[in-house]
Amino acid sequence: MNTALRNATLAAAVLASMETASAGSIPGMRGHDHTGVTVPDMKQAVDFFTEIVGCKKAMSFGPFADDKGTFMQDLLGVDPKAVIEEITLVRCGHGSNIELFKYTAPDQKDLQARNSDIGGFHIAFYVDDIAAAKAYLDEKGVKTRMGPLPVTEGPAAGQTILYFQAPWGLQLEAISYPDGMAYEKDAETVLWSPKTPEK
Question: What is the pTM (predicted TM-score) of this model?
Fold first, then answer.
């Protein structure tokens, strides 16, 4: 290949990669690694996720603080005097990880966000048998909401859901769709699921 052709090919490749990056993707983004959650009591949270939900503890580390500077504010956007007492990561089945934080901070708030609140969120776990999941959670004394609720219409038809709550108020969900969901029939993009291998 001559130099001019090689340079033109390289320039086209660079431009194509720039267009791809600017088209709505963080360069090199591969998937969801973890969800971070701040908890009031690390032992309680780890016990809940490992002994009730069935996740496995992978590692713990900390503490982190900066008594003299603004490292915590610059890195994490928290009060400069905030302290991360401990971070623990748990692995949940075939899904991504959950990173638990135990913070203390001068301006710390207990938000107890509901799903309807801006910034509210929940973590969903795929289960094979949602009726068995409900019975298990009830037996363990975990607060559950109405359900299991089967979705029978629309693109999500085929799924059944059940919301439940951690002892400190974190919103969680059990979800199951053993035969898939209606949208999958004509979808160009199919949602990731732990029940099926990556294509």
Answer: 0.82
